[in-house]
Amino acid sequence: MKLHAALAVSIGAVACLANDPLTPDKVEADINTQELQRNLWNFNHIANKNGGNRAAGLPGYKASVDYVLERAQKRFYKQMDTWVQPFNHTFEQTREIWVRGPDGNKVYAITLLYNTATPVPEGITAPLIDTPVDDARGSGCFEDQWAGIDATGKLALVKRGTCAISDKLKLARAHGALGVILYNQSPGENIGGATLGADNVGKLVPVAVTTLENGQAWKARLAAGEVLTVTLYVDAFVEQRESWNVISETKEGDPDSVVVLGAHLDGVQAGPGINDDGSGSTALLELMGSFKKYRGFKNKVRFCWWGAEENGLIGSLYYTSQLSETEADRIKYYFNYDMIGSPFPIYSVYKNENSGVGASALFDYINSQGKPAEYGEFGSDSDYVGFVDLGIPSSGIFTGAGAPTDPCYHLKCDNLDNIDYDALTINAKAAGRVAAQFALSLEGVPTRSKKVTRDSRGRTNKPLKGNNVV
Fold first, then answer.
1. 122 among known catalytic residues
2. Model pTM?
3. Residue among 213, 309, 353, 374 flagged as catalytic
4. Superfamily of domain 22-79+251-440
């Protein structure tokens, strides 16, 4: 009898746990820094074992997908429905890049995503021709800035900044340049990467980015009348590769009323991508682990890890392009978490005229934790684009890209030391608390707006989160 009583108590306790009602307080309490760090450690370990990155089209990304699936499909299969959405994307990789300066020595240079190859193995050796600096409008960004410049058969020296780099390269090509030596707008070798956009493959001249110091020194020598000859070498290739979105949603909740949380799982080829966007990915993993414990919520919650964001929002744009009108109507809100642990963070909450209580709830929670929340506008630089363009109410959190908020943005040093763990924890708790609130009730949430202001479907050339294309 005592054994039966004990079993009854045990079964009752399990039943009670399985029926534990969801509350925002419980989800907030479930999120802790140690578990967020654990996932980031694993993402960093994956990168270290796979060539130093987790970029789409490379083994580190597939290993990151497997890491998420191990949790969502194997551990949480009783509470979550999980699937992989495959898609093809244009993959580019630079195998080697270098610049030999006018004194015959190789100088510091980095490549850009979707770069154009030079002839291999000889590269391009040509005279350097200067272009005007216009920091206000952007140097080499407009046709009038190229007036009187005959770059035929030469390498154009152009300063980085303000406008899309692809615009500079198109104009250089139109004026006969064989390639461009782009010098950075900030001093030092801490040069952030950029994407030229898959849409521009075949339309641009080869390019290498060197330091501000090199560019200014060569500019001064050209102004003094010297003839400078430089060699540019880019060994790059482009091909179609498969990638994947990982999607996992709660079994409980109305399938016609879905709250979507998204973060991109891929990083750049230059580094492990721990802040960008391991920070958002670990937050979603911990939120999923919290939600699977509870019951009693009205609206379904869908967690999405997007692929090939760094290539131009490819995964999320594919996802939104495949939604029928009925499926889009079922998504009541989208939250985007891309870079939420920058080492010197701002606390920016995305907001537009259709963000409603989602934005204000995030804003209020962050402020309640003693952090200076601010509202920021949506741009065309992260995975919210496809949802905003479909008129789906949206918000999210962003803590900054590039100096001063994240000096390791898109660099090798975006590793475990490149996180403000206090910011990450607060933002993950904010995301969890608001997601739980929305799972229980959508009171005050605006309806979907059918006014699409931009065509995001299939677009791949994007100004990424700060200084990425400029």
1. no
2. 0.90
3. 309
4. Zn peptidases (3.40.630.10)
